Amino acid sequence: MLYKFGVEAFNGAIVTLATNRYDQDAYETVTLTRTFQSVGLLIGLNQASQCIGSMLIGPLIKRCRTQMVLSATIFIFALSTAIFMVIDVITGGSIKPKGFVAKHKNDFSYYGDYRTDIIIPIYCLSGVTFGMVESIRRVIPANIVGDNIVKLRKMNALVHIFYEIAGVSGALTTALVLIPHLGNNHAFIITPVLFVTSGLIWLFIHSVQNKIDIDENEISTHLKKTKVNYFKAIALTLFSFLQSIYTGAKIVFTSRKFIWLFAVYPLAVYSHRYIENSIAPQVAQRFLQNSDWSQILVGGSNLGELFGALFVFYFNDTMKSPILWVRLDALMLFVICIISSNWICFSCW
Length: 349
Prior knowledge:
Helices cover about 75% and strands about 0% of the residues. It has a domain of about 230 residues: Growth Hormone, Chain: A, CATH 1.20.1250. The protein is mainly α. One of its GO terms (molecular function) is transmembrane transporter activity.
């Protein structure tokens, strides 16, 4: 929960910070604004970096204890988030002054004086660590409960419930408290502290010793003895990743039994993330006239995920297939797309 709260504060503040700064740059230079092209690039590169991070983590957990790798990664993640505030302070930025009144809608004089594009590479660095943490934290429930499928499903649902409680509270706290009082250049000041705390807690998590763990320990011992090059292991992981994409695509697109999965599951899930990460900031900035409120929309999305996790937890043994909920998710995404397109057409008119 500490980790998720920190993530929501960080991601929400950074996206709104970039949105405001790009609008401010266009206002000061009297040029055509390209805010959301730049913010889209920022988010896209961050997500690509998450993919890289998820591939880097595999060889590491074969050599070291899972909890140690996770804690070390979250510490690096905390450092990457702190870099933003250090740069802001060094270049003359400060916490939003109490009673600050903007002279115009693009007046953010308490921001540091640095090129806005600097946000992109640092956010990519945090994306690598974010991808590593997100990949490895999903392994912990299985390590805790062992091989029992029913217990694992309930454990995953329980973890997701608390995860989304933190997500909802983190998103709303960021939008309604942290950004209005600290400014989005310092709203994530709590993130490094929460990350370090969660990393220290993860160090004390112990795993159930089961057959899978024993096999992994044997593999880990073998790797240490043979001293397999880490970069070679990464290359093998990348090859396996590409091979799995090919195999999965072959299964899905060559069988009538599975071809529907591509439209119903991957497109629905990534459309959900696209709306949450890209559409929400645009709606908040252009239609609600306040970029900070994008986190309120994200909080609503997290609340929906919380309800879904609660349903899985209580009806785990009754409804084992997720297909119905995936279809409902796709339907709701379709409704949101229609509403968004109507807003855009109305504004253009």
